Amino acid sequence: LITTPTASGKTLAFNLPIMETLTLDGSATALYIYPAKALSRDQLKVLRHLESELGITLNPATYDGDTPREMRPWIRENSRVVLTNPHQLHRILPWHHQWRRFYSNLRYVVIDEAHQYRGVFGSGVALLIRRLRRICRYYGSDPRFILASATLANPEEFSGKLTGLDFHVI
Hints:
48% of the residues lie in helices and 15% in strands. The chain is an alpha/beta fold.
């Protein structure tokens, strides 16, 4: 869990180790979960820039309700970094067999703006994360979860409740 003020480098702090892993393991994948489409679109630009600068093929893509239907199979089969939101993740988990390649190689799940997942909405996302973890286990992966937030009062407890995992707070 990375918790530090806005514009202090959280995104770089999780992107660098993920890019290192994706560079060293050509089949590794990563899932980025954002609460808002606008934020995922901004981060897609960052990831495309990193892909270009590092000279690696990630095929980063946003997979949400606005993703054209004809692009979805290509993303499932070719993207190594997928950006989505909880609602879309809920819609694609039942179709996990279509995501076999992605889930079996999933090394990281990033939950940015984690403080957004509180209350009833947070409870729903917590259950969604547990479903995702079960599917990953089914396909033989055990991804590392990285949470990032600028505003959490009790970050370690919050992260554990959201994901069902123990966290190290940075």
